[in-house]
């Protein structure tokens, strides 16, 4: 595990513990019950039948790149990307390292019709309740972050709350573990968590190992229409794209260009 990831996970556990201690569980359960999950994996499968299914990511900053988009209005960005053809949205909710927040997810989910992924470092079932209460339709599980038993508990909790799971892997060993979890979606992240270097070749190498029964998602490093086409040829159904969109004056225009 990288020092970057260790630092983020340590901070996440502290923050989650504090939020859980202060939480009004009845209110959270009520908010969770008020949100009907919209079928994250289904939306990606249906879009992939006719063209690239893009998960457009709302990302203000990252540990590796610093500030990515200074003028960051989540609802305006989310509705623009929905109109431009995004199949789903990914909303960063980590506050310290990505300058995101659950309130961003809550506002964006309420403003769009397409499914939303809570993009965060999930370490504790309480976060799954938070996710649905904030309008999430899916959560991310990072194989490099946790052991198999913890991941299984989080997956089971997601299913209890009717949320899909995107399992993120970086190499063959993590992929083998992810397939045992039977997640709806498996994402191959081209970013090396130890160095933060990005190599799309890493995703292409693993593409042939992804079974037909899952939604196959390529993550990170997608910067052009050609990248999307190459990854589709390799076997990917969907594409999680954040920085490439967020650095553009008009993310919607860039998304249209990537989709073709």
From TrEMBL:
One of its GO terms (biological process) is L-tryptophan biosynthetic process. Belongs to the TrpC family. It catalyses: 1-(2-carboxyphenylamino)-1-deoxy-D-ribulose 5-phosphate + H(+) = (1S,2R)-1-C-(indol-3-yl)glycerol 3-phosphate + CO2 + H2O. It is an enzyme of class 4 (lyase). This is Indole-3-glycerol phosphate synthase. Gene3D superfamilies: Aldolase class I. Its EC number is 4.1.1.48. Pfam families: IGPS. InterPro entries: Aldolase_TIM, Indole-3-glycerol_P_synth, Indole-3-glycerol_P_synth_dom, Indole-3-GlycerolPSynthase_CS, RibuloseP-bd_barrel. It comes from Terriglobus albidus.
């Amino acid at each position: 595990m990288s020092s970057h990831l260790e630092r983020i996970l340590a901070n996440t556990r502290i923050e989650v513990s504090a939020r859980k201690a202060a939480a009004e569980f009845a209110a959270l359960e009520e908010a969770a019950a008020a949100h009907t999950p919209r079928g994250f994996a289904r939306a990606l499968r249906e879009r992939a039948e006719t063209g690239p299914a893009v998960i457009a990511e709302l990302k203000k900053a990252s540990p590796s790149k610093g500030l990515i988009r200074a003028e960051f209005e989540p609802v305006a960005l989310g509705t623009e990307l929905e109109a431009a053809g995004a199949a789903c949205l990914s909303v960063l909710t980590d506050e310290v390292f990505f300058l995101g927040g659950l309130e961003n997810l809550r506002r964006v989910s309420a403003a769009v019709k397409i499914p939303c992924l809570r993009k965060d470092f999930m370490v504790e079932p309480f976060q799954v309740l938070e996710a649905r209460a904030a309008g999430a339709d899916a959560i991310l599980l990072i194989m490099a972050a946790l052991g198999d038993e913890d991941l299984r508990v989080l997956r089971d909790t997601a299913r209890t709350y009717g949320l899909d799971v995107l399992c993120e892997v970086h190499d063959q060993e993590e992929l083998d573990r992810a397939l045992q979890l039977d997640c709806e979606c498996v994402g191959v992240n081209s970013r090396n968590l130890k160095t933060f270097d990005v190599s799309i070749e890493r995703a292409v190498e693993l593409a042939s190992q992804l079974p037909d029964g899952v939604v196959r998602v390529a993550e990170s490093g997608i910067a052009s229409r050609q990248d999307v086409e190459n990854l589709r040829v390799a076997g990917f159904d969907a594409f999680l794209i954040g920085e490439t969109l967020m650095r553009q004056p008009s993310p919607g225009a860039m998304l249209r260009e990537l989709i073709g």
